[in-house]
Amino acid sequence: MNAAGTSTETLLARPQRADARRNYEKVLAAAREAFAEGGESTSLEEIARRAGVGIGTLYRHFPNRQALLEAVYVNEVEGICRSAAEFDGGDPWESLNGWLERLMAYIGTKQALAAELQHYLDKDAALFQDCRASLFAAGEPLLGRAQDAGVVRPDVDLSEVMHMVIGIAKIPATDPSQTEHILRIALDGLRYRADT
Amino acid sequence: MNAAGTSTETLLARPQRADARRNYEKVLAAAREAFAEGGESTSLEEIARRAGVGIGTLYRHFPNRQALLEAVYVNEVEGICRSAAEFDGGDPWESLNGWLERLMAYIGTKQALAAELQHYLDKDAALFQDCRASLFAAGEPLLGRAQDAGVVRPDVDLSEVMHMVIGIAKIPATDPSQTEHILRIALDGLRYRADT
DNA sequence: TACTATACGGAGGCACCCTCCGTTTGTCAA
DNA sequence: TTGACAAACGGAGGGTGCCTCCGTATAGTA
């Protein structure tokens, strides 16, 4: 997540003292684990308990629930960005499609991550900017290549594409194959067509 | 919305005594007003206060927050269904498009309504079934006509189309014109195309 | 009017978010 | 190694919100 030049370390500046740094990591790990298992609604008290720290300690490191969620999901976003590299060769349409499908599958089960991402795309806090920059650095080449090849309509930008995909990913999935079908339909709308 | 499992009339049956019926309406009106003004997060205590009833009274009529939200939004859904009638003539593609655009504009500012709708589309509680049936009765002719005319791909159903549109409507709108552009792209994916 | 089923209302239980502040501990200079 | 202190800890408790319980009030009826 260092597309903007400033390192993540600066933005997330760790606490100084050794025990503080240790506790920071423990809380983050417990949160990641708890959100994965029990859903994003796990209480902060529960997370503090899992981490073996007091609730006060949790709150010194993460001033509120939102901050903790964001810290957890910065990693996830990094994963999404990295996965773009796997699609940098081959057919432009298939590459873009592949990444977006991966993106959706990745998000699918994590409603909270999806909600965060939607905010990243517009909000302007420093951490958001950084995530946004990374996502764009990852996705823009794929989209640009597809547009240059003339297989994707030229009047869309990555922000729109990602909003669309994330919006679909957030559909409460009773049947994952249906959600995937909806994505295919929407992505079909991206294709360049000479007529009309 | 209990599992008593009887008819819809029973489920929507108003309280018997005059004061009860009066209070039911007062709470519903206060809730509608409060959700419209202050966002869907208004507390139930606040709504009871506005309605001039005790919190206990509110809870007898609406067993939980969700039930109150749903009761408020049944009206809104009816409005959406009615608007389908305006599009029953003319070009099939434009008709479907028009209704879906109307649907999205209608939902746009009401995130809570959108969330409810997404559930209506799948859940199977009696009231949901009812809303779902109304929405389908309204939208299915429009979609069917467009498919029969060969302008919409035959492998989509109304459930998918509505999930897609609502998913896009839920995108946090920093710029409404962008959201509308995204909708146009996605709807473009619905068009029938002979090639590939 | 008197009686009863129905409905009212708000105190209070519970869970959660977050703050405050007395206590503990890592760090570093002497 | 030790002493001093800034830094960090931790949990009691304040505030709020959802919802329940039950004593009180009242509409409807004979």
What does this entry show, briefly?
Two copies of one chain form a homodimer. Chain A has helices spanning 8-11, 18-38, 44-51, 55-61, 65-83, 92-108, 111-120, 126-148, 158-169, 176-188.
Main attributes of the structure:
homodimer; 196 residues; mainly alpha; 10 helices; 0% strand; DNA-binding
Can you describe what's shown?
The structure is a homodimer of 196-residue chains. By secondary structure, the first copy, chain A, is mainly α. In chain A, 68% of the residues lie in helices and 0% in strands. Chain A has ten helices and no strands. In chain A, helix 2 packs across helix 3 and helix 5 (65-83) packs across helix 7 (111-120). Chain A is elongated, with a radius of gyration of 19 Å. The interface between A and B is medium-sized, with 28 and 28 residues. The first copy, chain A, binds a DNA duplex (30 and 30 nucleotides) through residues 15-20, 23, 43-45, 48, 53-57, 59-60, 63-65.
Radius of gyration of chain A: 19 Å
**End-to-end distance of chain A, in Å?**
41 Å
Greatest interface and its residue counts?
Answer: A-B, 28 and 28 residues
Task: Estimate the mean pLDDT confidence of chain A.
Answer: 86
Strand content of chain A: under 5%
Structural class of chain A: mainly alpha
Oligomer: homodimer
Shape of chain A: elongated
Say how many strands of chain A there are: 0
Number of helices of chain A: 10
Helix-strand layout with pairing:
Two copies of one chain form a homodimer.
Chain A: H1 8-11, H2 18-38, H3 44-51, H4 55-61, H5 65-83, H6 92-108, H7 111-120, H8 126-148, H9 158-169, H10 176-188
The first copy, chain A, binds a DNA duplex (30 and 30 nucleotides) through residues 15-20, 23, 43-45, 48, 53-57, 59-60, 63-65.
